[in-house]
Specification:
single chain; alpha/beta; Rossmann fold; Helicase, Ruva Protein, domain 3; 3 domains; 21 helices; 14% strand; globular
């Protein structure tokens, strides 16, 4: 016969018994919103409740998305924007740093603007602003991208020359409407006109500090040289229509470097911010425009970027910023601390987990779950306008997208030690979402036929490939070893494992010809 005994139990011990503790999920009424006024994401991990995202009870409609390469971030963004267009008729403007969204936008019937490949933005277009305000924005952009703030005289000369260029083109400095006496819209000057004004001043020999003038000219000339004058020609796009044209991708991959890409992105954010203010508040439900910044660390991490201004003002205009990054610390605190929803896909590094946990204040249980996430799985943190008596961070079993999420797997078994193989905590494979892998290969220089061959090999092997064979294949395509190392690190492979991969790859390459590579991959 059993006996009941009374025992003293500490509060900590009692709290650890799940029978007394509410599982870390919001109640159904918080998760399950009206499908006609919300975006379906997926089902929760514990109770399998459908989660529909709606911003009306959140502090704002902005989203941060973090996670390692291949964890499903871009897949989520594509799914989210597709559904937002269907539910709210939302527009989307994607600032595409690496050309990742270009093909998807085309296939979805959207518009792709390829800077550096035939499209131009005139940096001095006023875009619904007064010339005086546009000058301030241009100077703020130059301050972010160059060291002009350290040279007050060069800054003054540049600002003065831009003002002269506007006046020479008959612009009224404090007016938004710019028309001539016949009612025709005036054509804005360009940076080439500004450089011409500065050069004329230099040639006159009358300026007291010619070295300062010469340096000011040199600073602007990097954007006006033939073949690099993407922002010094008349615009080939209608800035006023970009925020109301459905799905638009600004492809920056054709620009020569990060400075040019950042200049384009910062300028577009400035135009979008002014457009946001111009259209004003509206009562209608839903988001009017989603602005997407994916891996745009140069501008997402900058306090003076207009991305910060959109975050601060966007809610009242029904504008939303979506910022995504592998590294959450790349996102400026003014943005990260003010987003209403954070989607956390798999995060590998402890310092990033520490930053996220410290910022969002989730439990150690959630932290452990994040480290074990597979492709398409995520944690969600929501900041509500009122105090919540439930967990504001919870797990999504898997993002349910518009098309199946295809995962590729790189098998690590043969490069692990015997001890690692026996350890259940050591991953035997590295998984990556198919389109994310294709994007990465494109970034590292593979052409489309090579990328198709890689996909075909994965598909023939039931979505798996031995990681040593993958490294050999990359070498066959001409990738240098340092690039292969960077690619493997991007995919989450550790340094010791990478060393073992190259040792085994070297041994295997010595025993086969170039023709044998594909056959061996298929045989393994």
């Amino acid at each position: 016969m059993s006996m009941l005994r009374l025992r003293d139990i500490s509060n900590i011990s009692l709290a650890s018994r799940t029978i007394f503790v509410r599982p870390p999920e919001p109640p159904p009424e918080v998760l399950w919103k009206d499908p006609s006024n919300s975006i379906f994401i997926g089902k929760t991990k514990i109770f399998h409740i459908p989660f529909y995202w709606n911003y009306e009870e959140l502090t704002n409609p902005h989203l941060a998305i973090v996670g390692i390469t291949g964890s499903g971030k871009s897949y989520f963004i594509k799914t989210f924007l597709t559904r937002a267009a269907l539910v709210w008729n939302s527009n989307a403007f994607i600032i595409d740093w690496a050309g990742e969204y270009r093909e998807w936008v085309k296939s979805a019937g959207g518009q792709v603007i390829s800077l550096g490949k035939g499209s131009y933005i005139n940096l001095l277009d006023i875009g619904g602003m007064t010339p005086n305000n546009r000058i301030k924005q241009v100077m703020r952009t130059l301050a972010i991208l160059t060291n002009i703030e350290q040279y007050p005289e060069q800054k003054r000369l540049t600002e003065m020359a831009i003002e002269k260029a506007y006046k020479k083109a008959n612009f009224k400095m404090d007016s938004i409407v710019q028309k001539d006496s016949a009612g025709n819209v005036l054509i804005a000057p360009t940076l080439k006109d500004v450089v011409e004004i500065l050069e004329k001043e230099y040639k006159s020999g009358s300026y007291e500090y010619p070295a300062e003038l010469q340096n000011a000219i040199y600073r602007l000339k990097q954007f006006t040289r033939p073949g690099q004058d993407f922002f010094a020609q008349q615009s080939t796009l209608d800035l006023a229509k970009l925020t109301t044209s459905g799905l638009v991708c600004l492809d920056l991959s054709g620009l020569p470097d990060e400075t040019f890409r950042a200049l384009a992105a910062l300028s577009m954010l400035q135009f979008i911010k002014e457009r946001m203010r111009a259209v004003g508040w509206r009562k209608k439900k839903g988001i009017r425009l989603f602005v997407v910044l994916d891996e745009a660390w140069k501008i997402a991490g900058e306090e003076n970027s207009d991305a910060v201004m959109i975050v601060r003002e966007g809610r009242k205009y029904n504008f939303s910023l979506i910022v995504a990054s592998q590294n959450p610390t790349d996102i400026n605190e003014a943005i990260f601390s003010n987003v209403g929803t954070t989607f956390i896909f798999k995060v590998k590094f402890e310092k990033y987990l520490n930053y996220l946990q410290g910022s969002l204040n989730f439990s150690d249980y959630i932290r452990g779950e994040i480290t074990q996430l597979g492709v398409g799985q995520c944690a969600v943190n929501m900041a509500f306008t009122t105090t919540a008596n439930f967990s504001s961070t919870f797990m999504i079993k898997k993002v349910i997208g518009e098309e199946p999420l295809v995962e590729y797997f790189l098998d690590l078994k043969h490069v692990l030690t015997e001890e690692e193989r026996r350890d259940v905590k050591v991953a035997q494979t590295v998984s990556v979402e198919r389109e994310e892998l294709r994007r990465r290969l494109r970034m590292y220089g593979l052409n489309e036929s090579q990328i198709e061959e890689v996909s075909s090999l994965f598909d023939k092997k039931n979505k798996h490939m031995d990681i040593v064979s993958f490294a050999i294949l990359m070498q066959r395509y001409g990738l240098a070893r340092n690039k292969i190392t960077s690619l493997l690190k991007d995919l989450g492979v550790s340094d010791p494992t990478i060393i073992n991969i190259f040792i085994k790859a070297d041994f295997k390459v010595h025993s086969m010809t170039n023709k044998d590579i594909i056959d061996i991959i298929l045989e393994e």
